[in-house]
Amino acid sequence: MPEPGKKPVSAFSKKPRSVEVAAGSPAVFEVETERAGVKVRWQRGGSDIGASSKYGLATEGTRHTLTVREVGPADQGSYAVIAGSSKVKFDLKVTEAEKAEPVLAPAPAPAEATGTPGETLAPAAELGESAPSPEGSSSAARNDPTPGAPDDPIGLFVMRPQDGEVTVGGSITFSARVAGASLLKPPVVKWFKGKWVDLSSKVGQHLQLHDSYDRASKVYLFELHITDAQPAFTGGYRCEVSTKDKFDCSNFNLTVHEAVGTGDLDLLSSFRRTSLAGGGRRISDSHEDAGILDFSSLLKKSSSFRTPRDSKLEAPAEEDVWEILRQAPPSEYERIAFQYGVTDLRGMLKRLKGMRRDEKKSTAFQKKLEPAYQVSKGHKIRLTVELADPDAEVKWLKNGQEIQMSGSRYIFESIGAKRTLTISQCSLADDAAYQCVVGGEKCSTELFVKEPPVLITRPLEDQLVMVGQRVEFECEVSEEGAQVKWLKDGVELTREETFKYRFKKDGRRHRLIINEATLEDMGHYALRTSGGQALAELIVQEKKLEVYQSIADLTVGAKDQAVFKCEVSDENVRGVWLKNGKELVPDSRIKVSHIGRVHKLTIDDVTPADEADYSFVPEGFACNLSAKLHFMEVKIDFVPRQEPPKIHLDCPGRIPDTIVVVAGNKLRLDVPISGDPAPTVIWQKAITQGNKSPARPAPDAPEDAGDSDEWVFDKKLLCETEGRVRVETTKDRSIFTVEGAEKEDEGVYTVTVKNPVGEDRVNLTVKVIDVPNAGEDSCTVQWEPPAYDGGQPVLGYILERKKKKSYRWMRLNFDLIQELSHEARRMIEGVVYEMRVYAVNAIGMSRPSPASQPFMPIGPPSEPTHLAVEDVSDTTVSLKWRPPERVGAGGLDGYSVEYCPEGGSEWVAALRGLTEHTSILVKDLPTGARLLFRVRAHNMAGPGAPVTTTEPVTVQEILQRPRLQLPRHLRQTIQKKVREPVNLLIPFQGKPRPQVTWTKEGQPLAGEEVSVRNSPTDTILFIRAARRAHSGTYQVMVRIENMEDKATLVLQVVDKPSPPQDLRVTEAWGLNVALEWKPPQDDGNTELWGYTVQKADKKTMEWFTVLEHYRRTHCVVPELIIGNGYYFRVFSQNMVGSSDTAATTKEPVFIPRPGITYEPPDYKALDFSEAPSFTQPLVNRSVIAGYTTMLCCAVRGSPKPKISWFKNGLDLGEDARFRMFSKQGVLTLEIRKPCPFDGGIYVCRATNLQGEAQCECRLEVRVPQ
């Protein structure tokens, strides 16, 4: 299977670039490989390019060159170069030899203008399709890297957003570029203001977020666009980008300046150019602003109207934030911190607190320590002061403790009046406050040790487990002992949940262990560090056991070997073999084996005692596989069994799902196989080729496969053991591998296994997916010339388009269009667009035309899938298919079906119009004809590509021998209760449709109660309400001409039995009565299960059951009461139930009273008094303050003891906050809403005349954090 976590290594050291050349000129593409001798292939449109008069191929060492001679419009398109598993695509664009006069575009503004900030114009290359910025706008993404710029070696950014300035009311765009060559999915980008404000929730009139993807450079572009900027927008911003296993962020600032006062000076009219070349860019769409602003003049002359108040804006000096905070009142701290991007407010206040004290003139120090220092972990830092007295003694303190000379960690230096403390190899322990003390005076500083981010060196891997299995996620980070967080679906897993999750740390490795997985554990698990996070998905599936091969009945002779064999879907399932319901113990003659998914029971030297019912019961599953062993006296020579080959795929119904692989990744198909002798494995790929007729249509003419294509179907044999596509076969499996999957690898693969016993075959569908291409849909735009040409002839037209809900117009042509119509291409299907046109003459561009009516480009659907022939007769063919994979925005109107004779080219419609169904019966076909069928999907854009049957279909009924497929449960006696419905369904095979005949006891079925329903594939015997008369032997026969097949069914209709006969009392003695009766006259057409005997007292006549399921016809009823009279009755019972009535004795039977004198026994009085003892003592408890708590124990004693409760030796009987309860020896002390003061030692004391006992416990009251 593909390995999405690994980036493939490229075989190229220098890749080709897309070029644009004039028609008639040659085009040269160069590429360099990592080593010499590598075979390089050049392709165009998926087909290989060879050396010819048109193409020239050259190789010099590691340098390879492709030359396209005399380039023409037909050569324009996409090309590719392949070396090993690496493939690089590039484009060739052909322009006309005679170009229009070049258009002069305004030069891009510099990164930092000398004029008013925020009044620069973004370069044209940066704006792309976006609309021009209004006056006062700027772009923060300048000096964009070229598409081929290398990736950021530190993080994910190719280009980070830069600081920007804008004037109030202006617009600004911040851009971030992210490398996407190694990403399977688009990265997740979030924009923040300050520390917490997520800007995605603020999108609206003043803020928009945009993203796009450049397929050529494989770079993602993310933009933050701010319009109508306000002073409140000033502050620090942050851009965060994250992928599955990487994380990066970048900070930048935005400054919003007040608008410059201009008095009565009209800037727009003063600095507007009066003319524009025909191809120039239009900056404003308003009716008053007819020209283009000359920003270069505006920047040069803006100083003439600046007010003195705004002179600071020209080159703002770097300000000391801490000095501003010292001078400001505390109420302004938060605003200043937000304005200057300070996010650690707690650290700011702590540092500011030490700076607030008024600094006195120091007499001991000429130069003090800086307020704070910062150093990276593992680096060296020097703390230097300059003294007023060079001979003064100096002490260095760390967190108030004097630093002693110890090795090379701390180095003290004294050079003249300078004193230096050097800390080498800084660690997190050195992050502290340091002081330099001279006499009674000292100066302080704070050292911050910056810890490098903890990076993830080996990410988490996705897990697929069954319920109850153990799950272990493992991740490796760059630092030993690093602090990490485990999260599930974004929620942190804390130590309070350790009863379910276990965390292990082993050096740089971190593990999350789930001992027994449940369905609730499914989700996305993440390990987060200070430098990124790793994400993996856990999928938990319920245990489902599928039986591939059940055990079958066996008939063996004496001294032979009996082998019961079954195969299940899970290799780890164990099971138990049973013989007649009892567990079978293996010995020297009976052997039990378990190899993979196969379970075997082998019995050597079979004897008559081995004849029994054998069952296999898998552990943990409600499943039972059973079969019977029949012993046969006749000696049968043992013939070794040969096992036919079989392909084992874990998929229901032997129809595997489509295997999806991302383009460029590795595809590995691991197919387990079995068979004895070892089978031969053959891999093939289905190939569909279309051979065009010699007369090719024009390039713009629509293609019709039915008119010019002859379809040829073949299969390609895959047998290479090395290379990009290879096959490896072992004894028990076959492995098919594709390195760097390409679109050409998509298709249906057939794997066939053969041996002398038989063969097995499976089709595997492989689909290669890639990042989407832009839609190639087009539309034709027509317009009328302008009513007034401005006194100069119209030179041409400029066409623009935009999405309906967007405000940005995109220019479609850079060369003027001379005609009054144009075909616009590269539009996205399903998106609503609008168009507008400009007229251009020698003076300039006109105002834009009104926008066109909104329209949506729609493309036809793709071809239907899985076209198959369902049935064939002498004049009809039944077809079925599945809907197309891509329907598109135009929906699906229906399908058309056509057929064509083999070798012909004329396709005939099989039905009028379209059908909405995915199956059809084509009628009135000539018998014996060989036809090809094809199906197209249609929508409002027209028909899509057709799908054609792989082989011609012969229209002829296939003669198939009739055969009844009698289900296993109908092979035994069928038992039904009276008045139950009988529905016996028996499938059969045979072509043409066989004739079905039912008989009972050799006679045709008679009567309306028994009916027979026949279909082309099965027959049903139906009885609405069964009666006893319907019991008997039924025979069903299917016949085709002189061929037939029969099956016999035995139906037994059962009912409740009649009551027993002649119930009588045979004897009565003591407390016992003997009863006897005869079996019932009618047993209900089934075996009797026994009798139920009941008795009733003559006084109450309430019946009580004495015996159930009693098999004999006589019994003794014991333990009767002296002096009472009893009636007796007996019910007969079978599988249906008890008889409706019972046989009852006519006269009661009396139990006489014997003459016995009762003498009561003499008992000695017992003393039950005992001392108190606690059967359940008090236990220590820890509770949360504010929640009522109970202390419980249990005591026994006689007489009932007196209970007293104490806390720390004090009696609690008078305290109203405590309530005592005593119920049947269970003692309870209730503490209402305890507080920490209520914690202590609690004692319960029990006292009576026999003694005293007590127990104690400790109560801890915790305050919630």
Automatic annotation (TrEMBL):
One of its GO terms (biological process) is ventricular cardiac muscle tissue morphogenesis. Thick filament-associated protein located in the crossbridge region of vertebrate striated muscle a bands. In vitro it binds MHC, F-actin and native thin filaments, and modifies the activity of actin-activated myosin ATPase. It may modulate muscle contraction or may play a more structural role. It comes from the Eukaryota. This is Myosin-binding protein C, cardiac-type. InterPro entries: FN3_dom, FN3_sf, Ig-like_dom, Ig-like_dom_sf, Ig-like_fold, Ig_I-set, Ig_sub, Ig_sub2. It comes from Macaca fascicularis. Belongs to the immunoglobulin superfamily. MyBP family. Pfam families: fn3, I-set, THB. Residues 102-113, 128-141 have a biased composition (Low complexity). Residues 153-255, 360-438, 452-546, 645-765, 962-1050, 1172-1260 form the Ig-like domain. PANTHER family: MYOSIN-BINDING PROTEIN C, CARDIAC-TYPE, TITIN. One of its GO terms (molecular function) is identical protein binding. Residues 101-157, 689-708 are annotated as: Disordered. One of its GO terms (cellular component) is M band. Keywords: Actin-binding, Cell adhesion, Immunoglobulin domain, Muscle protein, Phosphoprotein, Repeat, Thick filament. Residues 762-859, 860-958, 1059-1154 form the Fibronectin type-III domain.
